[in-house]
Amino acid sequence: MTQHPPHPQQLAPAQPQALTYPVAQLERRFTAFAIDRLLAWSLLAAVGLVTAYAISDELWTVVGAVAGATVLLWLVLAVVLGIGGSSPGKAMTGLRVVHHGTGTPIGVGPALLRSFVLGFCGLPTFGIGMAALAWTAVEDRGRQRRGWHDHLTHTVVVDVRPVVEVEDAVDEGPRHIVNLTAMRLIPAPAIEVPRTPERSEQSMRRQPLPADVIAPPGAGPAPGTAPQQQAPQQQAPPLQAPPPGPPYPQQVPPQQLPPQAPPHQSAPQWSPPPQRPQPVAARWRVHFDNGESFVIAGLALVGRRPEARAGEQVAHLIPLQSADMSVSKTHAQFGPASDGTIVVMDRGSTNGTMLVRQGVSRQLAPGKPAALVDGDKVVYGDREMTITREA
């Protein structure tokens, strides 16, 4: 009986899903730290007062009770931080401590070490220890505000508050303006005038009419003519035109010539109005933090070593060097949509892609494109780019 080898997907362990929350701001981290310290000092002060009034007021007894309470409180807070990634101050400010690579809870061991470093730096040294620790977070090369204690325990503090959805602004094109003055200057279309045949020279001659036709009704016969008896119900014969004669001779004076009809004046021909120039499509330019800048000509891939998929038409490949490996191999993509807007989409990166618009940042969901407007900033791990619109 032939045994088939197990499928590679069955052998590989399930990888935990990384959290896609944005990195916490330093102000909120300081607020959470102050709340935790205030609660801890209040609790230790209460233990000292209860020991002095209820058990003994000796100095070493009170000091021992406070020291024991300090150790117990340190252990409890470390266990809560390692399992749930939170503390009273972080829960009130919406922060959480997670693993930098996977986004999962860090465990009790790293939490104990992290709390010990914070406690050691918090010793009464006129704030020098905490100031040095905060300086390491401000000068983090990965731009994720990770202090020395975070690098030591591979942690990062993220903001788990609900993300405020920012509606994508629709870029309206230029509106068409009707120039009424130009419309009044356009000539009206010509009216077609029916043409009639011009009179001929023969028709210009007056034909002699019979005397009975010229005479008005009721008048007698013309002098010198005999009266004629009209036969009853007899009609006069129709008039016949005389045979055509020769044209006017050349010696006929001009004043005897028949008046000629004025030449036909053609109506002004209608010409179409001038074509308005079509608005030129705007160009979009991206600027990276390393000084690189170019105009978007099509689909662009961003990452450490970006590669296109099979059959994917790519116009730009932008390799980005990452100091802390927070940029994935093919991190994200951006390019023009069918309506001309520029959209960006995360391609399932480890640390996610963040969109910053007018100081408000939000994490982009993998595989879901988001429209960009002029001045937007996009952060890929420890790298960032800015998009601008050119007329």
Written overview of the protein:
It is found in: Cell membrane. InterPro entries: FHA_dom, Pra-immunoreactive, RDD, SMAD_FHA_dom_sf. It comes from Nocardioides oleivorans. It is a multi-pass membrane protein. This protein starts with 7 loop residues before the first helix and ends with a strand. The longest helix has 30 residues, at about 25-55. Helices cover about 30% and strands about 15% of the residues. Helix 2 (about 25-55) runs antiparallel to helix 3. Strand 9 and strand 10 (about 360-365) form a beta hairpin. Among the domains are: about 15-160, no CATH class; about 285-390, Tumour Suppressor Smad4, CATH 2.60.200.20. It is α+β, with helices and mostly antiparallel strands and about 400 residues long. Strands 4-3-13-12-9-10 form a 6-stranded antiparallel sheet, with no helix packed on it. The chain has a 5-stranded mixed sheet with strand order 6-5-7-8-11, with no helix packed on it. Strands 1-2 form a two-stranded antiparallel sheet.
Principal-axes geometry comes out as: elongated
Listing every helix as H and every strand as E from the N terminus to the C terminus, the arrangement reads HHHHEHHHEHHHEEEEEEEEEEE
**Fraction of helical residues:** 25-40%
Question: Unreliable runs, pLDDT <50, ≥5 residues?
Answer: 8-19, 211-215, 224-231
Broad structural category = alpha+beta
Strand order in space, largest sheet: 4-3-13-12-9-10
Strand content: 15-25%
Number of E-type strands? 13
What's the total helix number? 10
